[in-house]
């Protein structure tokens, strides 16, 4: 039964890869890519929302969980597709109230890679507009 499931999965994977559009290039489902046209809505107090395009990371990375008989019962290694390097960029928002600083700062990906998240520099609640408010 297990062998049959494995064959079906591999066959499905082959079909997925073979149906990619011509000229797409080599595709690895377990790889991290840099996407140069990610749509983002810049939101800042005193300004109307403005759509910008940023470079960001997307993809899938290998992840491993090894069961254990004792506490903690498993060993996990979950890699994320994230920035290997990035730069800060800023733009002037076009539609802001008088007296409001229209500068909007954001992170732009330079390179991306699969890596283990670190509590030192990863926060799932992080937003660029909160950084200026000291959060």
Can you give me a brief rundown of this structure?
Helix content is about 15%, strand content about 40%.
Name its key features.
alpha+beta; Cystine Knot Cytokines, subunit B; single chain; two-stranded antiparallel sheet; disordered N terminus; 135 residues
Main pleated-sheet profile: 2 strands, antiparallel
**Biggest sheet, strands in spatial order?**
1-2
What is the CATH topology? Cystine Knot Cytokines, subunit B
Strand % is 35-45%
Shape: elongated
Content-based structural category: alpha+beta
User: Mind telling me the C-alpha Rg?
Assistant: 21 Å
Number of helices: 2
Please, what is the average pLDDT?
Answer: 75
Count of folded domains: 1
State the CATH superfamily name: Cystine-knot cytokines
Low-pLDDT segments, ≥5 res:
1-24
Terminal CA distance: 52 Å
Give the arrangement of secondary structure elements:
Blueprint: H1 2-18, E1 32-42, E2 50-59, E3 63-67, E4 74-78, E5 80-92, E6 103-115, H2 128-131
Antiparallel strand pairs: 1-2, 3-4, 5-6
Account of the 3D structure:
The chain has 135 residues and is an alpha+beta fold. It has one domain: Cystine-knot cytokines (Cystine Knot Cytokines, subunit B). 16% of the residues lie in helices and 42% in strands. It is built from 2 helices and 6 strands; from the N terminus they run H-E-E-E-E-E-E-H. It is elongated.
